[in-house]
């Protein structure tokens, strides 16, 4: 019988070493729980970076996927299918945006939004051809493609991968004055995460997003919100931007759009942005497939009909309030919105990974980010007894030497 050590050795021998996972080998998931090959049970407090807002193997989404898989999985966009128009309509009714453009991965959707912004710059704002600039925030994370890492400020993501795509300017996150000073007549768009997840669950000052929106409107610049991790209920609102009651020009969705069953992403916006694209200018063989659309439709229904957004707010507020009772000398700050929570440790705590490794031994899977932050982001279906169990484990582990 193959055990965890055997699987780890196979992966290390035959797989690229571009990840540093915890040494747990999972083979089954249900709801908020996952099980390793030895049968040990763990609470998933990462949710595949918020792709599993609906929990593992949600039965409704599974049924939708299986039903569609028996009918038709892929047509390419050379032909139409019955699922995609319904997804378009339901996304519009849920979000208030007029149009959507479906893709697969989150990074693909980011690239799509950037292309639309550049097309808008030349076709609408009349910026001289190929001189459009897009402003991003320092410590951003929008994916791993060449263009996306070109505007990353994290050296690890960029080293050895140049030359880089031009046309991007990074400013300090949370500083609207720095943003406004960076705007020029060539500025087409501002791309921003409402909360920076990968950077360590960095929440901007209150009013920042509203100020960014106002600056963009006044300067005739598009505001693009990357809600791949923060959207679809994770922060206790449909979108994290809803906390400040703003509507960006475009919103990028991914991860939980499929409930973890299939890569599904999308850019949503109005006719004046999404509607600029013409046949042949952009596309994807798998993006908008009948299988993807059927899965996304049911994933959205689960979020709404099972009240996952409200549960994220309630459980998230409770977790933060309880974790703030810690007496651990290791903790610098606990911050979060909804069920996107970061526990920042002091430098002298010697890194967050060792705490995550002990949490794994206690039956809770979390992941370190930016060395000193433990990210806590369980599926939005989590209930109060499970939350209480998790809080107890976390508080105990934070007391370790």
From TrEMBL:
Classification via SUPFAM superfamilies: PLP-dependent transferases
CC cofactor: pyridoxal 5'-phosphate
Keyword Amino-acid biosynthesis among UniProt keywords: yes
Record-level Gene Ontology MF annotations: identical protein binding; ornithine aminotransferase activity; pyridoxal phosphate binding
Enzyme Commission code(s) on record: 2.6.1.13
GO biological process: L-proline biosynthetic process
Pfam families: Aminotran_3 (PF00202)
Enzyme class: transferase
CDD domains cross-referenced by the UniProt entry: OAT_like (cd00610)
Key words, A-Z: Amino-acid biosynthesis, Aminotransferase, Proline biosynthesis, Pyridoxal phosphate, Transferase
Domain of life: Bacteria
Biological or metabolic pathway of the protein: Amino-acid biosynthesis; L-proline biosynthesis; L-glutamate 5-semialdehyde from L-ornithine: step 1/1
Stored InterPro entries: Aminotrans_3, Aminotrans_3_PPA_site, Class-III_PLP-dep_AT, Orn_aminotrans, PyrdxlP-dep_Trfase, PyrdxlP-dep_Trfase_major, PyrdxlP-dep_Trfase_small
Keyword tRNA-binding: no
TM region positions: none
Protein family (similarity comment): Belongs to the class-III pyridoxal-phosphate-dependent aminotransferase family.
Protein name, per record: ornithine aminotransferase
């Amino acid at each position: 019988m193959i055990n965890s050590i055997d699987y780890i050795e196979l992966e290390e021998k035959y797989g690229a070493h571009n990840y540093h996972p915890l040494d747990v080998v999972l083979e089954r998931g249900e709801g908020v729980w996952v099980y390793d090959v030895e049968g040990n049970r763990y609470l998933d407090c990462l949710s595949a970076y918020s792709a599993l807002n609906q929990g593992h193997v949600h039965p409704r989404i599974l049924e939708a996927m299986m039903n569609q898989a028996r009918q038709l999985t892929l047509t390419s966009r050379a032909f139409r299918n019955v699922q995609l128009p319904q997804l378009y309509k339901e996304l519009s009714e849920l979000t208030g945006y007029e149009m959507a453009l479906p893709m697969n991965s989150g990074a693909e959707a980011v690239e799509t939004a950037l292309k639309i912004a550049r097309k808008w710059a030349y076709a609408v704002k009349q910026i001289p051809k190929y001189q459009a600039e897009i402003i991003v925030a320092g410590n951003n994370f929008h994916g791993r493609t060449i263009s996306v890492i070109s505007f990353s400020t994290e050296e690890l993501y960029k080293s050895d991968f140049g030359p880089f795509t031009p046309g991007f300017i990074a400013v300090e996150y949370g500083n609207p004055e720095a943003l406004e000073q960076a705007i020029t007549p060539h500025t087409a768009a501002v791309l921003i995460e409402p909360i920076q997840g990968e950077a360590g669950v960095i929440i901007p000052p209150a009013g920042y997003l509203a100020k960014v929106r106002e600056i963009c409107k006044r300067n005739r610049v598009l505001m693009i919100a990357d809600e791949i991790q923060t959207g679809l209920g994770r922060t206790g609102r449909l979108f994290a931007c809803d906390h400040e009651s703003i509507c960006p020009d475009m919103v990028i969705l991914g991860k939980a759009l499929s409930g973890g069953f299939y890569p599904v992403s999308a850019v949503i916006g109005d006719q004046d942005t999404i509607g600029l694209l013409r046949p042949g200018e952009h596309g994807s063989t798998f993006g908008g497939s009948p299988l993807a659309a059927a899965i996304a439709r049911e994933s959205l229904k689960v979020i709404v009909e099972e009240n996952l957004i409200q549960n994220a707010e309630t459980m998230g507020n409770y977790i933060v309030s309880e974790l703030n009772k810690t007496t651990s000398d290791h903790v610098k700050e606990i911050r979060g919105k909804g069920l996107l929570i970061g526990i920042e440790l002091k430098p002298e705590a010697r890194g967050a990974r060792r705490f995550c490794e002990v949490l794994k031994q206690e039956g809770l899977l979390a992941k370190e980010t930016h060395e000193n932050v433990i990210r806590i982001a369980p599926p939005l279906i989590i209930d109060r007894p499970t939350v209480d169990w998790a809080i107890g484990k976390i508080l105990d582990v934070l007391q370790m030497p």
